[in-house]
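In practice, a research group might receive sequence data for several interacting partners and want a quick structural hypothesis before committing to experiments. The following worked case mirrors that situation: the sequences arrive first, and a predicted assembly follows.
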Amino acid sequence: MNRSSSIEIIDITNKPEYEHLLVGCIFHRKKEIQLQELINGNPERVRYLESVIPKGLHTKILFWKGDYVGMIEYGSPEAAGLPISGENIIIMNCIWIHRKAQGQSFGKMLIDDMIRSEEQACGFATLALEDYWMIWIQKWMIEHLGFRSIDSIKLKHKTYKKGQCFKVHLMWRSISDNVTPPTWDKRQLLYGINYCHHHPLYWGKYGCAKSGLTEIHEKC
Ligand SMILES: CC(C)(COP(=O)(O)OP(=O)(O)OC[C@H]1O[C@@H](n2cnc3c(N)ncnc32)[C@H](O)[C@@H]1OP(=O)(O)O)[C@@H](O)C(=O)NCCC(=O)NCCS
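A structural hypothesis for the assembly, expressed as tokens:
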């Protein structure tokens, strides 16, 4: 089997047979979990998917030799889960290549696939973190995938690692010159995001849901 024939990128968004990969996160699973359990455990994610799939959200999985090793999720500003706006732009919620498969151009393949699929888009935006203590989409990683920071804000969690500041960057990759860059609602970031409960900025993380906080971050 040559390398390209062993790689397949599948849009799982409207494919019931992949619903467990759509609701649960593909890499945070030490054991197989039943779909119903995933649905019960991720009500925010389920609500998010129900509202944005009709608006054109795409979740794609990269299979390598039959095993899922990478994912990307993106959509228009109306469908994506990040507070970024702009005309004719696409927002990337997430990209992830499993550690065992990193460094083999799979990340670039998913980005190229997104750009090819969204040929009307004049640019692509996402968020990245800097000085964050856990692995997530770090600024330097996204820079390697062709994005650059166009703005940033310094935040801290209200209930976790109090006093430790980190930066959130608005990352942008424009397709051509003379494109108006996106804007973002920094205030909205204080409420966190709700499309993925593994995301470091997830609203329900670190006891915020239990303590009834609405704004879970503050400026640093
Ligand atoms: C960012 C990420 C998607 C890149 O995927 P990848 O398949 O490893 O990257 P590629 O092989 O396509 O390489 C892309 C570029 O990044 C560089 N790169 C990748 N890993 C690197 C590393 N550890 N150190 C330095 N450079 C690296 C490559 O050299 C390449 O750059 P170049 O074109 O200038 O040579 C991947 O590292 C990742 O998933 N990181 C974790 C992201 C995460 O936490 N997501 C959120 C989950 S909730």
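Before designing any experiment, note the following. The chain is about 20% helix and 30% strand. The longest strand covers residues 148-157.
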